[in-house]
Amino acid sequence: MNTGDVMKKRELEERTKRTFDESVSALDAETLSKLTQARYKALEQLKKNSANTWRSRWIPACAVAVGVFVVMVFWQGQLSGLSEVQTFDVVALSDLEILLGDEELDMIQELEFYAWLDEQAEIVPADGTEGGVG
Amino acid sequence: MALAALKQPAYLPREEGKLGLGIEMDTFLRDVQTRAYRITLTSVRDADEALDIVQDAMISLVRKYSARPAEEWRPLFYRILKNRTLDWQRRGIVRGRVISFFGGQEGEGYDPVARATGPSSENPVETVARSDAMDALENALMDLPRRQREAFMLRNLEGLNVSETATAMGCSEGSVKTHYFRAVHRLRELLGEHF
After folding, report:
1. CA-CA distance, A6 to B144, in Å (whole number)?
2. B169 to each of B82, B83, B162, B173, B180, how far by Cα in Å?
C-alpha cells in the first residue's frame, strides 16, 4: 500500500468516525431518556446479584451446619450405647400412642385415678376372688 | 478510594463494597449506551428493537459479568450486543419466511410517520447534510459482509483496539485485521462520492 492509499484510508476512517459521532450527538431527548431507563434497569441487576450472592453463600453454609449437627447427634448416640436411643424411641412411641389414641381427654387427665385402679386390680384378695374394688 | 467519595445515585445498590462497583458500572454503561444504540440501529434499522437489544445487552452484562475486571466489560458488552443483534436478525428471517408462507407481507403495520424522528431546533441544512452522510454510511455498511461490518464498526466507530475487537467478535486478532482491511477497501469503493 503506497502513501496515497494510506492517506485515503486514514481520511475515510476519520470521515466515517466523524459522521458516526455526529449522528450519536444528534440523538433526540426521547431516545436518550429511554437509554437512561434501560441503564437503570440493568443496574437493578446489581441488587439482585448481591441478594443471590447472599443466598448462594448462606444456604450451603446452613445446610452443612445442619448436616454436621445431625452427624454429631448420631455419633454421640452410638458412643453412649444404642440402648439409650432405643429407650428414647420406645418412650417417644408410647407417648405417640396416647396422643393419637381415640380415648377421651378426660381419661388422660385422670391418669392418677386409673393408675390407682390398676394397682387395685393387681392385688389379689386372700379369698381368691378377683378385683379388690367393688 | 476516589469513587466511593462520589455521591451515590438512588438507583445503585447501597451495600458496602457494591458502591464502587455500582458507580463504575453506571459510568461504563453511560459511556457506551448512545454509541451502542446507534451502532445497533445501523444493523437493525428499527429504533424500538435497537433499544430493546441494547437494554438486553446491558442487563446481561451486569447479571453475568459485573464481577469481572472493568477492563473486560467493553469487549464483553459488544460481544453480547453483537450476539443479540444476530439473534434478532435470524428471528427476522424466520418471521419473514413464516409470514410469506401464509401469504402476508413483512412490514405490514409499519408506520413511517410514527417512526420518524421528532423536530430538531438545529440548522435544517446541517441536519439534512449530516443525515445524508449517515444514510450513505449506513447503506454502505449494510452492503459489507457481516464480519467485515462488525470489524469496521467495532474498530473504527466504537474505538475498540484489535484485541478487544477480537474478543467481541470471537475470532483471532489476525482475522480482525483482515476483515478490517477488506472493509475499509470496500467502503472506499462504496463511499467514494460521499466521503
Report:
1. 21
2. 8, 9, 10, 10, 12
Which residue from B71, B75, B26, B84 is spatially nearest to A46, judged by alpha carbons? B26
What is the DSSP annotation of A48-108? HHHHHHHHHHHHHHHHHHHHHHHHHHHHHHHHT-HHHHHHHHHHHHHHHHHHHS-S-HHHH
For residue A72 the three cell numbers come to: 454429631
Given an 8 Å threshold on Cβ–Cβ distance, is B25 in contact with A43? Answer: yes
DSSP A39: H
* B13 contacts A46? CB cut-off 8 A: yes
Neighbours of B134 (CB within 10 A): 19
Of B47, B59, B134, which has the smallest distance from its Cβ to A42's Cβ? Answer: B59
B100/B56: higher pLDDT: B56
What pTM value is reported for the model?
A: 0.62
Gap between the terminal Cα atoms of chain B: 46
By CB atoms closer than 10 A (0-12, 13-18, 19+), residue A118 is: exposed
Q: Which residues does chain A have within 8 Å of residue B156's beta carbon, measured at their own beta carbons?
A: 13, 16-17
ipTM (interface predicted TM) = 0.73
Comparing CB atoms, the residue among A35, A47, A50 nearest residue B54 is: A35
Q: What's the pLDDT tens digit per position in A50-97?
A: 666 666 666 777 788 888 888 888 777 776 655 555 555 555 566 666
Alpha-carbon distances, residue B63 vs A47, A74, B57, B87, B135 (angstroms): 10, 42, 10, 19, 35
